[in-house]
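One record is kept unedited as follows:
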Amino acid sequence: MTISGRHPRHRGYTGVVRQICRIAVFPVALVVAVASAMAAMDRGVDPVAAMFSVYLAGMVVVTALERLFSWIFSVGELHRWHHSTRMHEANRNYGNTFIIWDAVFGTRFLPSDCSRPEAVGIEGLAAFPQSLPAQFLAPFRWRRIEEASEAVR
């Protein structure tokens, strides 16, 4: 897997969005888990098993909220597709912070199975530098990178 030379961006707010989803769901999940455990004890069912099943259901809710946020914010899953080596996948998800314009103009791309691209980076440039300092110098060494990549093919 190569580091993409398209553009470096940080995705710190993606973690914040994920935490907001979890914080919003936690109080509701806790109340439902306790209620399920109490109902399970009334019926002679293991309360730990009942609470665990509610926990799993809560994770489904968090995932659903993250999918909902992916229609508004450019979350990491969307950004990963933007760096696919396949151009029909990479020419998508242009939004830096908000993805709503990609949704409006039909360039938002996130497969329903939540898979990941097979490879990210720049296809056909095997000699593209892997270190960050070398990537900063890559535009000034582009011809050498292309020639070295041709020699590898």
Q: What stands out?
A: DSSP finds seven helices and no strands in the chain.
